[in-house]
Design brief:
Rossmann fold; globular; alpha/beta; 13 helices; 249 residues
Length: 249
């Protein structure tokens, strides 16, 4: 399978280890991975701020770069959801879009639904707290949520349980927002930080040693609060855990 690796701009600039972990994991699972060097931001920050016209050129550029691949995989639920669910009204009926939106996947979604991964090597002897990001949960349906009366499922959790030594933290509220919300964290700083600290308190009571998620944006927000408040929790993107990377010190 010819897979294009889409690395979100903030991951590329601030957390390159997450991009490398995603690449290592996909190649280990037999994918022929290409990283299109011309890729740019997907336009999510602009669209979230109501600047649709500023996001449009980036959406058109995304179609130009990624349209011919068998699959597009990204370690970010929010960026994948941007392309899959929010491009339609800004690409103006581009015929490439309907096909492309069926080929873009968040990493865990791709591993579970496309590659059908049923085992992973490695040992990670830590209590892992899984944060379910809002975009991944409620727009990509990576897991069941408390708002709907549906059968329980959780694709990231399913993958973590394949790793020897992982003990999942039992949170009181599995699917509550961390408070980041992109520009919301800037416009409503106090509310955003309060929500983040509330999530961290849940992880502390559950004994979380390593906090993980499929969205580095959520983890960036939570990591900042953890460091500021000097809590003994490490933060890792799920790609790093699945790829067998060491816990950062």
């Amino acid at each position: 399978m010819r897979v294009a690796l889409f690395v979100p701009c903030y991951v590329d600039q601030l957390y390159p280890r997450v991009g490398m972990a995603t690449l290592d994991l996909l190649e280990r699972l037999g994918c022929d991975v290409d990283f299109p060097a011309a890729q740019t931001c997907c336009g999510q920050p602009m669209l979230n701020s109501g600047c649709d016209t500023d996001a449009a050129p980036l959406a058109e550029r995304f179609l130009e770069i990624f349209a011919d691949y068998d699959a597009i995989v990204a370690p970010s639920g929010s960026c994948v959801s941007m392309v899959k669910n929010h491009y339609e009204h800004i690409v103006h009926g581009d015929p490439r879009y309907e096909k492309l939106r069926t080929k873009i996947f968040e990493l865990c979604e791709f591993l579970v639904d496309v590659l059908k991964v049923d085992s992973l090597p490695g040992n990670f002897p830590y209590v892992v707290g899984l944060h379910s990001s809002c975009h991944g949960l409620r727009e990509l349906r990576l897991a069941s949520d408390s708002e709907r009366n549906t059968c329980e499922f959780n694709k990231p959790q399913q993958l973590l349980q394949m790793i020897e030594g992982v003990q999942l933290a039992e949170l009181k509220r599995q699917d509550e927002c961390c408070g980041f919300g992109g520009t919301f964290a800037v416009a409503e700083e106090a509310v955003s930080c309060t929500m983040g600290r509330d999530r961290i308190a849940d992880h502390l009571q559950a004994g979380t040693q390593v906090l993980t998620a499929g969205d580095m944006s959520c983890l960036m927000h939570l990591a900042g609060l953890i460091q500021r408040d000097k809590h003994p929790i490490r933060v890792m993107h799920i790609a790093e855990i699945l790829a067998g990377y060491e816990v950062p010190q």
